[in-house]
Amino acid sequence: xSLIQVxxxxxxxxxxxxxxxxxASFSIDTNWRCGFIGRxxxxxxxxxxxxxxxxxxxxxxxxxxxxxxxxxxxENPDDTPxxxxxxxxxxxxxxxxxxxxNLLDADPGLLYRPYSTLSYGERTKVLLSILFIRENSxxxxxEPTNHLDIEARGTLAQYLKxxxxxxxxxxxxxxxxxxxxxxxxxxxxxITVMRGNFTTWxxxxxxxxxxxxxxxxxxxKDVKRLGEAAARRSAEWSNRAEDRKIGFKPERTEKAxxxxxxxxEKSRKMMKRAKSIESRRNDALEEKSALLKNIESADTKLxxxxxxxxxxxxxxxxxxxxxxxxxxxxxxxxxxIRRGDRAALQGKxxxxxxxxxxxxCGEDVPHAGTLKTASGLVVSYIPQSAEGLSGTLRDYxxxxxxxxxxxxxxxxxxxxxxxxxxxxxxxxSEGQKKKVLIARSLCEKAHLLVWDxxxxxxxxxSRMQLETLLKECVPTVIFxxxxxxxxxxxxxxxxxx
Length: 497
Fold this sequence. Notes:
Blueprint: E1 3-11, E2 21-29, E3 33-37, H1 44-51, E4 58-62, E5 66-70, H2 81-88, H3 94-103, H4 120-132, E6 137-142, H5 150-161, E7 166-169, H6 173-179, E8 182-186, E9 191-195, H7 198-245, H8 254-289, E10 313-322, E11 333-338, E12 342-346, H9 353-360, E13 367-373, E14 379-382, H10 393-400, H11 404-413, H12 430-443, E15 448-452, H13 460-473, E16 477-480, H14 484-490, E17 493-496
Parallel strand pairs: 3-7, 3-8, 5-6, 6-7, 12-16, 12-17, 14-15, 15-16
Antiparallel strand pairs: 1-2, 1-4, 8-9, 10-11, 10-13
C-alpha cells in the first residue's frame, strides 16, 4: 500500500482571475478504485494533468507510482493496437494483452486491425487493455463510457471492478455505483474524499446539505430577531432620552450633577448592550455566510421553450429499416411518438439509432418503410458531437435565433461562471460545449426534442437537473442515451432496435 499525497496544492491558469485549486490537501490510497466527480469546469481533468506533470503548481504532490492517462493519444491511427502496444512496451507479453481483451469481452483479432477502423467501444477496450498490462502504474481514467452502449458499459464496469489502483472520472451514476469503492469530490468550496460509491456519497451529501439549510434558516431567524431587538432597544432609549430633555434645565446643583452622572452611566450601559447585540448579529451573519457554500444547484429549475402541436400523433414509423447497401441494419421497426412521450431509442452501438435520429431531422438516409411526421412539426436537435463550436456565446445565440438572456440564464443554472461568457467557445471544455448545445435546444421553440447522446461529458448534477425538467415540463422528446439511471428516471417508452 502507498499513498498519493496532495498538500497545499494551488494552481491557476495564466491570465485567469481565480485559481482552480487553493491550498487543497488530501490523500488517496493507490489500491483504491476511486471515483472522481464534480461539475464541469471544476478542475477534474486539470488535476489529472497536474498528476501527469503537465503544469507547474505550488504545493506538493507525492506518489510512488507512475501515472498513466486514458485515453492516451495515438500518434498514428493507421497503426494496429499491437503496434501501439509494442511502441509503448517493447517487451510486453502477448498472453497478458490477450487475457485483458478477453476480460473485456473483446475479440483479440482487434489487435491486427488499423486503430482508425475500430469503433469507439473497441478503441476503449484495446487502450485499457494496453494500460492495464503495465506494471507499477496508477491509471487516470477520464470518462471511458462516452459513446458506449448500456451493455458495453456493463462489461466495462465488471472489468474495472476486478482491478485496483485508478482514478475514474465518470458522470454515469449506475456505472460509478458498480465500480468504485471511494469518492474524490471537487465541491464548491473544498475537495473531499470518502469511502463508498456514488449513492453513498450522494446520501451523505444530501444529509450535509439538509443540515446546512436547517442551520441557515435558524441563523436567518436569529439575525432577524437580533436586528429587531437592537432597533427596539435603540428606539426605547432614544424616546426616554427625549422625554427627559423636555422642560429640563440643567442647573448647577448637586442634584442635577448627580442626575447627569446617572444618565451618563445608563447611556454607557445601553450603548454597551447595543454593541453586544450588534456583535452577536455580526457573528451570526458571518456564520451564515460560511454556510451553503457546498450546496449544489441540482434543484435549480431549468427553463424550456416548447410549442404545442395541434395533433396528438407526432411521429409514426411503419416497417422502417435502414439499408446502406449491405442489407438492413435492424429488423423492420414500428413505433409512435405522441405528445408528451419521452421515448428512449436503445440498442448496441452501430445498430442504427443515429440513422433514425437523422431521418427525424429530415436528412436523406437510405431506408425502407415509412417514417411520417406531423405537418409543420418543428424539431430541436442535439447532435452527439459538439465539434465546430466557435466564437462567442452572444454570436452563437444570434446565429441560432434564440433569446440571449434566456440562453445565458440556462447556462448559469447549469453552473456556467459569468467569466465563461466572455470566452470563446473553442476554449470551453467538452462538457461546457455540450451544455451550450443543451441550452440552445431548451431555448428553441419546438414541438419535438431530438437528442442524440446529449449527456456525453455532462456532470451528474446537470443530469439530475435535466431529469427534473423533462419530468415536470413534459416536453415531447425522443433520445439516445446510455446512462441507465437517466433512462430509468425519464423515459416513458423504450424503442428497442
